[in-house]
Amino acid sequence: MVTYRYTAKNAEGRTVRGTAAAADAQALYARLRGEGLYLTGQRALRPARRRALRPAQLAEFCRGLGMLLEAGVPLLRALGILANEDGLAPALRALYEALRADLRQGVPLSAAMENQAPAFPPLLVAMVRSAEGTGSIDRVCRRMALYYEKEYRISQQVVSSLLYPAILAVMVVVVCGVLVGFVLPQFEELFAQMDELPWPTVLLFAVCNAVAAGWYWLVLAAVLLAIGVRAALRAPDVRRAWDRFRLHMPVTGRLYRKICTARFARTLASLYACGVPILNSLQASQDTVHNAWIESQFPQALAAVRSGSALSAALMQVDGFENKLAASLQVGEETGRLDDMMSAASDTMDYEAEQATKRLLGLLEPLMIVVMGVIVALVVVAVILPIYGSYSAIAG
Questions:
Q1: 86 and 184 together in one domain
Q2: Which of 8, 96, 111, 148 meets the CB 3.0–4.6 Å disulfide criterion with 37?
Q3: Which residues have CB under 8 Å from 145's CB, separation 6+?
């Protein structure tokens, strides 16, 4: 499919301009003739480079499409209504028009979304594809709107919670820079006249002089270290080892396990509630965990489920998930209400991850204040000690 910008005449002789997708110029001419337009000029446009939609944009797309389809609006017209909304970004409008162009050619919605990769995530494409066979696209879209709204809310909470610690971290750097660059040099000439300085003062001036003389080497070393760490984490074995370590860290490991469990439970519950088979749900859910160590254990879990093991027993063997998830699913299997227990477990894991995130970020604020206070106190002590010593010598 090629996107053309065309100029045409309608039946009244007025000029009409727009864009349309077609296989070639002849197909474009035939399509416009079917709409009562006479093509007078066309120009092929370069394919637009799509960007992955953010959770807020995905939630808005799913919510709007689900509401229109539930109201009985045809799919093609529903996309047209979404594309003509006031204030819509040009990139989103072009994306919706590209979906409409594929639908006019008889392409299913899931395939049209897949053609616009990486705009739509594979999870949403898989959900829409499963709903096309049952005619429940509206229900799936509404459920996925809630899914992405929850994901957006959690990410925004983390960003807003990190704002104050980030400001404190910047203040620590600024305070250190002011002390090293402006305050301490004022005392250096005074201290140079003294016969002997306390070791905190000597150490402080040695560090300050080293930083002032070789700050660019420190910056270069930090950049090279960041590049090296990033390159090392691309190796599968290193990535798995690092993700495993993150899951078992003393303080933040429990929080990270809750977040990974909440991601998995939320996706699994959404897929299973929409009628996706349990094996397909497991395969799609593993990609949303974003932990290489947990993902490496899924082949064994899938093999156990295929061989007839219970889902709860298979997930119990996955190192990195909270045991509460498997326990909740076991109750659902015993009572025959697995879908309800999946939704309940998903909500519980989301709530616990949210609360754990708040507690952890709440600890960062006093920690940053303590760090800044300790740095200032060390500088003050290193400056006051020789002055106090000189006063004592004069008094003696």
A1: no
A2: 8
A3: 59, 60, 62, 63, 66
Sign of CA dihedral 213, 216, 219, 223: negative
Which three-class secondary structure state does DSSP give residue 307? coil
Residue 135's alpha-carbon distances to 109, 185, 367, in angstroms, are 12, 75, 54
Cβ-based neighbours of 372, under 8 Å, separated by 6 or more: 168, 171, 172, 175
Using an 8 Å Cβ cutoff, are 233 and 239 in contact?
A: yes
Residues 201, 285: Cα–Cα separation, whole Å: 57
Query: In which element (H, E) is residue 96 found?
Result: helix 90-104
Domain count, the chain: 3
The CA distances from residue 196 to 28, 191, 192, 368, in Å, are: 89, 9, 9, 34
133-165 pLDDT tens trace: 777 888 889 888 988 888 888 778 777 777 777
Residue 288 has what pLDDT? 80
The pLDDT tens digits for 33-85 are: 888 887 888 777 665 567 889 999 999 999 999 999 999 999 999 999 998 88
157 in a structural domain: no
Q: Are residues 227 and 359 in the same domain?
A: yes
Average pLDDT over residues 186-190: 71
Beta strands 38-44 and 2-9: pairing type?
Answer: antiparallel
Any idea what the Cα angle at residue 371 is, between residues 370 and 374, rounded to 5°?
85
Between vectors from CA 47 to CA 44 and to CA 48, what angle results, nearest 5°? 125
